[in-house]
């Protein structure tokens, strides 16, 4: 089961299909409310079909290189979970990390082999001196945010420690609407659920807690320093990704996410440089956890890059803005084979489409025609239109918009195979 938001639902199914996994049930959150409502929604949904089942809660963005060691840890945790324990997984620390929370064990373990150990308490992200003390003591683990428990046990834990969350989440599940294999949780009920992590809502208050240590390698990729660390630096401690060059650099990350943008570093030491099509980040490695401060600063300045990605993924493919002017915008639009945009119109803009790869089937009012490479078509303001990719290869076109307002919310949808409103 996957719990995600509407924008990512088709990316989820595509990625799971690529690795040969049936996505099964996918719950769509109307808005992000942190991990406690998400876990509770999954448990309440499963309660209808498998109340005695076990839930392994695993965030999707973690790196676990040794899958067999992780499976061994889960297997070791299973008896305790079936007995009603809420089992968390703790990572053996290899450095005094200040970006993670910690788990204090009831005693110092003789080994870090998979075993169930009593958990004394959760510890918030520490400062460096405290982190060094905890790592040297030997009875602290990183809090991975991965849990194993039965459906019934976690529901009972919410009843005991966060009972106010049950009514809105239960209603959101009960009033959820099926949509192309997804279940859309009811937005009105969901908005009444507290925005809180499962650690704060339940785990830090529960008494039936145990922990299984895991020493097989792990990262939550929580910052660019983690990306640098997990990308296997060369003998100089340098990681290069994309169009980047390093000259006399040490212990640095140089990363370009734009094929047309070359990043060159000269004499850098302990520096992170990440170039996106619309922004460039340069930071000392020791400040990698402070990127959120940069986001807050940009939001305060109403900078678009703080709120929007340069490439916008949609269920039919993706688009990116190449040039944005006061009354015009140029986009590159990539449509997957067999995919179709909604039948729509706009109040404030007209569009000119030029196909540069593949073939598009284009509807403009009552006219339907095929547009091939190097051909174009004009969509007047107010016209009802749609583009589809009837072929077996991706279709790429350049869209030129002109008008008084170019926002993505200037769309009236008449038909949509992806059930967007």
Question: Can you give a write-up of this model?
Answer:
This protein has ten helices and 27 strands. The protein is of the alpha+beta class. It folds into three domains: 2-214, Alpha-Beta Complex (Spore Coat Polysaccharide Biosynthesis Protein SpsA, Chain A); 224-291, no CATH class; 311-415, Jelly Rolls, CATH 2.60.120. A six-stranded antiparallel sheet has the order 17-18-19-26-21-24, with no helix packed on it. Strands 4-7-5-6-10 form a five-stranded mixed barrel. A hairpin with a 2-residue loop joins strand 17 (311-314) and strand 18 (317-324). Helix 2 (35-47) packs across helix 5 and helix 2 crosses helix 6. The longest helix is centred in the N-terminal third of the chain and has 16 residues, at 67-82. The mean pLDDT is 92.
Biggest sheet descriptor: 6 strands, antiparallel
Shape: globular
Uncertain segments = none
CATH architecture annotation name of the largest domain: Alpha-Beta Complex
Relative strand content: 25-35%
List keywords for this structure.
421 residues; alpha+beta; Spore Coat Polysaccharide Biosynthesis Protein SpsA, Chain A; Jelly Rolls; 3 domains; 6-stranded antiparallel β-sheet; 5-stranded mixed barrel; 10 helices
Question: Secondary-structure map with pairings?
Answer:
Layout: E1 2-5, H1 9-18, E2 26-29, H2 35-47, E3 54-57, H3 67-82, E4 86-91, E5 102-105, E6 117-123, H4 128-137, E7 140-150, H5 151-161, H6 166-174, E8 177-179, E9 182-184, H7 187-190, H8 198-203, E10 209-214, H9 224-230, E11 239-241, E12 244-247, E13 253-256, E14 263-266, E15 271-275, E16 280-284, H10 291-300, E17 311-314, E18 317-324, E19 328-335, E20 343-345, E21 349-357, E22 360-364, E23 367-371, E24 376-379, E25 385-388, E26 395-403, E27 412-415
Parallel strand pairs: 1-2, 2-9, 4-10, 11-13, 12-14, 13-15
Antiparallel strand pairs: 3-7, 4-7, 5-6, 5-7, 6-10, 8-9, 15-16, 17-18, 18-19, 19-26, 20-27, 21-24, 21-26, 22-23, 22-25
Helix pairs in contact: 2-5, 2-6
């Amino acid at each position: 089961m996957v719990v995600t938001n509407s924008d990512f639902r088709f990316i989820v199914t595509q990625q799971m299909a690529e690795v040969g996994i049936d996505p099964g049930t996918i719950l769509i959150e109307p808005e992000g409310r942190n991990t406690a409502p998400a876990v509770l929604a999954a448990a309440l949904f499963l309660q209808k079909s498998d109340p005695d089942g076990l839930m392994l809660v695993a965030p999707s963005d973690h790196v676990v290189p040794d899958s067999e060691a992780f499976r061994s840890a889960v297997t070791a945790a299973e008896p305790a979970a079936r007995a009603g324990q809420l089992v968390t997984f703790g990572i053996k620390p290899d450095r005094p990390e200040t970006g993670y929370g910690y788990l204090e064990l009831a005693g110092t373990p003789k080994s870090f082999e998979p075993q169930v150990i009593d958990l004394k308490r959760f510890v918030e992200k520490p400062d460096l001196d405290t982190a060094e003390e905890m790592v040297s003591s030997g009875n602290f683990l990183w809090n991975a945010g991965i849990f194993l428990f039965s459906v019934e046990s976690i529901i009972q834990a919410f009843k005991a420690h966060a009972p106010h969350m049950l009514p809105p989440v239960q209603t959101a599940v009960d009033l959820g609407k099926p949509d192309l294999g997804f279940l859309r949780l009811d937005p009105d009920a969901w908005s009444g659920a507290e925005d809180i992590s499962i650690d704060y809502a339940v785990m830090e208050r529960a008494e039936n807690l145990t922990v299984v240590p895991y020493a097989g390698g792990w990262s939550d990729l929580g910052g660019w320093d983690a990306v640098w660390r997990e990308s296997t630096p060369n003998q100089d401690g340098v990681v290069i990704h994309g169009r980047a060059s390093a000259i006399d650099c040490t212990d640095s990350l140089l990363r370009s996410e734009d094929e047309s943008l070359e990043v060159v570093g000269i004499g850098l030491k302990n520096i992170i440089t990440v170039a996106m099509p619309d922004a460039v980040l340069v930071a000392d490695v020791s400040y990698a956890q402070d990127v959120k401060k940069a986001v807050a600063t940009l939001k305060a300045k109403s900078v678009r890059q703080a709120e929007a990605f340069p490439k916008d993924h949609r269920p039919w493919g993706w688009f990116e803005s190449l040039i944005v002017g006061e009354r015009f915008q140029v986009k590159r639009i990539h449509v997957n084979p067999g995919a179709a945009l909604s039948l729509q119109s706009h109040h404030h803009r007209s569009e000119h489409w030029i196909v540069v790869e593949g073939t598009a089937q284009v509807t403009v009012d009552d006219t339907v025609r095929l547009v091939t490479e190097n051909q174009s078509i004009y969509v007047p303001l107010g016209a009802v239109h749609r583009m589809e990719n009837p072929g077996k290869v991706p279709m790429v076109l350049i869209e030129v918009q002109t008008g008084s307002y170019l926002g993505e919310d200037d769309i009236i949808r008449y038909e949509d195979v992806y059930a967007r409103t």
